Amino acid sequence: MKIHVALLLLAFATTGVLAQNPASISNSATVELPPAVNKGFRDLAVLDPTILVDIRYATTNNFTHSKIYDCPRCLLRPDVADALIKANETLKKRGFSLKMFDCYRPRPYQQRLWDKVPNPDYVTPPSKGSMHSRGAAVDLTIVDSNGKELDMGTEFDYFGVKAHTDNLQLPAEVLTNRKLLRETLEAVGFKGIRTEWWHFSYQSKKYPLSDYVWPCR
């Protein structure tokens, strides 16, 4: 028994310690949590380091101007992560890649967001549960080979008509870029929403809401 415990502690020490990403953009090779610890989630930055990660709610660079997450991490359900990797492979053939603004959002963090902005037009009430809190929704964009974001017409989390996907009164380049994002994500099982060009939810499988909060070091 002592040997088994020692081996377990050694395995956790080598695979379970989180390397906290800086809140700025990264293509982090963060150590992935063991399945028993991460509650069925996978770290997208570990699975595909070519996907950029800029988790805005772990910074003050978001529409609330407040830090909502204690530390940044892009966790997703395994099938959702696999689908995004496929989407990224498609984009890389054209010289592009994905950049993540938000991934899994624990319900306690959804509550923090709601406490800052208790408006269902912009934030899903925690009692209802966001698709982000199921690990099945992402906020993202496309970047070129130099990491520069393609012009999507607005910044992430811009709440207004200019961000609506049915708004065609935009420059041709913007419409083309949004079309590329939408078609790439739809091809692997995601669906967008009308009011936010950056938001997509995975449709091929349903997941329960989760309270799991990843640890920070």
What does this structure look like?
It contains six helices and seven strands, in the order H-H-E-H-E-E-H-E-H-E-H-E-E. The protein has 217 residues and is α+β, with helices and mostly antiparallel strands. The protein has a single domain (2-202), classed as Muramoyl-pentapeptide Carboxypeptidase, domain 2, CATH 3.30.1380. Strands 2-4-5-7-6 form a five-stranded mixed beta sheet, covered by helices on one side.
SSE string: HHEHEEHEHEHEE
SS strand fraction: 5-15%
CATH structural architecture? 2-Layer Sandwich
Give the CATH level 1 class.
Alpha Beta
In brief:
By secondary structure, this protein is of the alpha+beta class. Helix content is 29%, strand content 12%.
Write the layout of secondary structure elements.
Elements: H1 2-15, H2 35-38, E1 42-43, H3 44-47, E2 52-53, E3 75-76, H4 78-92, E4 97-102, H5 107-116, E5 137-143, H6 172-186, E6 190-192, E7 199-202
Parallel strand pairs: 2-4
Antiparallel strand pairs: 1-3, 4-5, 5-7, 6-7
Defining traits:
217 residues, alpha+beta, Muramoyl-pentapeptide Carboxypeptidase, domain 2, 12% strand, disordered N terminus
